[in-house]
Amino acid sequence: MVNFDYQTPTRLIFGKGVVAEKLQEVMAQYGNRVLITYGGGSIKRSGLYDQVLELLKDKEIYELPGIEPNPKFNPSVLAGVRICKEHHIDVILSVGGGSVLDCTKAIAGAACSDEDPWDIVIGKAPTLKAIPIVDIITLAATGSEYDSGGVISRTESNDKLAYFSPYVFPAVSFIDPTYTFTLPVKQTLAGVADCINHIMEQYFCGEHISMNDAFMEGAVRSLVRNVKVVLEKPDDYEARAEIFYATTLGCNGIYALGNSASGWPMHAIEHALSGHYDITHGEGLAIVTPRWMRHILNSTTGELHEQVVERITSFGQNVFGTATPKESIQAIHDFYKGIGIPMTLREVGIDESRIGEMAHHVALNEGLDEAWVPLHEEDIAAILRDCL
Amino acid sequence: MVNFDYQTPTRLIFGKGVVAEKLQEVMAQYGNRVLITYGGGSIKRSGLYDQVLELLKDKEIYELPGIEPNPKFNPSVLAGVRICKEHHIDVILSVGGGSVLDCTKAIAGAACSDEDPWDIVIGKAPTLKAIPIVDIITLAATGSEYDSGGVISRTESNDKLAYFSPYVFPAVSFIDPTYTFTLPVKQTLAGVADCINHIMEQYFCGEHISMNDAFMEGAVRSLVRNVKVVLEKPDDYEARAEIFYATTLGCNGIYALGNSASGWPMHAIEHALSGHYDITHGEGLAIVTPRWMRHILNSTTGELHEQVVERITSFGQNVFGTATPKESIQAIHDFYKGIGIPMTLREVGIDESRIGEMAHHVALNEGLDEAWVPLHEEDIAAILRDCL
User: Which of A155, A246, A278, B28 has the highest local Cβ count within 10 Å?
Assistant: First the structure.
């Protein structure tokens, strides 16, 4: 068991009807000038936008709409920082999915600094404080509602980078699973794949403890079972709630305190895919997952290989009831394919032309030579080719 | 899945050597006047007391030694409040087990109020703020290092009452499993029993979700396995660390977010035992556990009975590999007896003479008629008689 230093101060308000019940009470703790950040029109179609404005009708409201999936530094982060500085925003209310919230975190940090916002995002300049963030999270996927990080893309350089600061934990996250009843199937599936992958990145490592294994295997079993339920019945509250619960805990570390670091290799590789092609993150992760597993199974030797075999076997045994590492890898592939996720890069519009470039980008920027199973440029290229 | 509103702001610093590594940095965030609270002499014998004083030699140190197991309102809480008020204490450093920390929480809350400290403890007067608390926890048991509650006894009235306030979450908890290498066997066992019972109180309820079950079953399996390891080899770091990790998460709710409330019936009954006889809390819980299980199995009917059968069966199946509810109850009894916990009240010096009085006290004060399986005075008396 490795030493850890863990803190997640975010208050989670979870369940049916929690926004109507508690948003006003929560927002009353902050000042009067509120920036509401959101994405496309879905919160307007669902009525959530109107509900929030009505609940906050005594506040001075500013808005930043149009935040993209894979949120962009330019224009979104820059526009948000400008509004916050100009209008002395007291609190930012993020209403939407993980992309809106990730973007909000970068805004909240950069708006409290005189440094170049890009330097804040890449950590060249330190985040020393942030505007308080409250969020209403509408998509079960990234776990951004319970962590201190966000992923920001810069189109000019194909960069997709993680921004972290303890100052950008949401103060309060509202999670009402009924908001996910009307999600497009594609987003439901991508969210589940995103969360399963978050868990796998923490499960597949060198040093791990048994109760974390049980927790993570239980969470993945829950996701596997419940995603099938909501494909049949999108408004099944229990299934939607269990999915949202599992995804909320995905990225703050609570699944695996005391486990050693893995390096999050599948995320690192996927960030190149969605950085270069703007594909849906969860779909990219689903595609990469079985290929990364196969690569580490086939390319390792000695003690590391024994670790790899043990992890892949245990995961398959306790999630899918499989017996061998190969069956485990096949089971996760077949599960994703069975629920309807495109499982090749060609299906999401990516061919071999930029594989070398992407592998180089990952090898240069993601430090995977230090990962649990170290990956070099040729390993990354081989995994990506296997994904075609 | 039931709605929940959850927050645990405490920073956990866990592992070998963390006090030497980070105590000064942590304490530098607070003012200069430090009250150190502790219990008997064990921290002096172990060298921890000297280490802490050396690390804090630039601070103005006050001390409250002698805090009792089952900490007493009078003298300990009152004495601590007096020191804090007289010397304008900036931060309290609790060094010891859960009893020291529980007492510290009551001091921290009552010292910031002009109301009668007993009224603060029983909630008659509100806790509106508290002196910041840092702790070095030396006993793997109560989980007080990661929750906002404490249990305080008042000898005059045989009261043993829980005190809760969101203001008394420790700011930072230092958890070094090596401190438990030299614990007396009795305390190691009682701590494990305490934690298993915390988990069972959250597991045995009406509405529950599958990933919580997996987490809790995994934690109990870990405790059952690792306590046997440390009985053989008290300085096995991995086993001590896994035990401490499981106990730290025991009481803040993270094991069972979204589960319905159970009423914590075994704790309620045990509080009467240790309130009237000052026995070791974990031993009292171990004794009550199989008798409470048997009582609810035999006394319920209809849908509630089906729930009871399902919970007892699942617990036994997934922790001990048993098949029937009776085998599950026998397995937990035999596990406790096998590791050396006294499993009857007579063995801990309690006879039938005050059972009626204790049952009356519990029925009057603990609200068990509202528990998942409601218990009235005659049920409580029957359970206690079964414990003799």
Answer: A246
Domain region containing A238: 184-387
Same domain, A45 and A162: yes
A243 and A160, same domain (yes or no): no
Residues B229, B166, single domain; the answer is no
Q: Are residues A193 and A300 in the same domain?
A: yes
For residue B237, the chain A residues in CB contact (below 8 A) are: 1
Is B242–A5 a contact, with Cβ atoms under 8 angstroms apart?
no
CATH number at residue A162: 3.40.50.1970
A234 shares a domain with A94: no
CB distance A3–B18 less than 8 Å? Answer: yes
* Cis check: omega of the bond before B75, within 30 degrees of 0: yes
* Residue matched to tokens 């909501």: A230
User: What pLDDT was estimated at residue B168?
Assistant: 98
Evaluate whether residue B3 is within a structural domain.
no
A167, A211, A252: best to mutate for the B interface, most B CBs within 10 A: A211
Same structural domain, A38 and A153: yes
Q: For chain B, which ranges sit under pLDDT 70? A: none
Q: Is B8 on the interface with A (CB under 8 A)?
A: yes
Q: How many CB pairs under 8 A join A and B?
A: 126
Residue B70 inside a domain? The answer is: yes
Phi/psi of residue A208, each to 5°?
Answer: -150, 160
> B366 touching A, CB under 8 A?
no
Where does a domain end: B154, B179, B204? B179
Sequence-separated (6 or more) residues with CB below 8 Å from residue B373: B265, B296, B299, B300, B304, B308
Residue-by-residue pLDDT tens, chain A, 388 positions: 999 999 999 999 999 999 999 999 999 999 999 999 999 889 999 999 999 999 999 999 999 999 998 899 999 999 999 999 999 999 999 999 999 999 999 999 999 999 999 999 999 999 999 999 999 999 999 999 999 999 999 988 877 888 999 999 999 999 999 999 999 999 999 999 999 999 999 999 999 999 999 999 999 999 999 999 999 999 999 999 999 999 999 999 999 999 999 999 999 999 999 889 989 999 999 999 999 999 999 999 999 999 999 999 999 999 999 999 999 999 999 999 999 999 999 999 999 999 999 999 999 999 999 999 999 999 999 999 999 9
Please tell me whether residues A215 and A350 are part of one structural domain: yes
Q: Which of B4, B10, B214 sits opposite A14 (nearest CB)?
A: B4
End residue of a domain, out of A179, A196, A219:
A179
What is the spatial distance between Cα A230 and Cα A125, in angstroms, rounded to a whole number? Answer: 44
Ramachandran angles phi, psi of B5, nearest 5°:
-130, 105
- Total tally of structural domains belonging to chain B: 2
Cα-based angle B344, B346, B348 (whole degrees, multiple of 5) = 85
Q: What is the pLDDT of residue B76?
A: 97
Q: What is the pTM of this model?
A: 0.96
Question: Are A301 and A227 part of one and the same domain?
Answer: yes
Handedness of CA A303, A304, A306, A311 (dihedral sign): positive
Which H helix or E strand runs over B61? Answer: strand B60-64
Question: What is the ipTM score, two decimals?
Answer: 0.96
| A250 domain-assigned | yes
For residue A70, give every residue at least 6 positions away whose Cβ sits within 8 Å of its Cβ, in sequence order, or none. Answer: A99, A151, A153, A160, A274, A275, A278, A281
In a domain, B6, yes or no: no
d(CA A80, CA A74) in angstroms, rounded, equals: 10
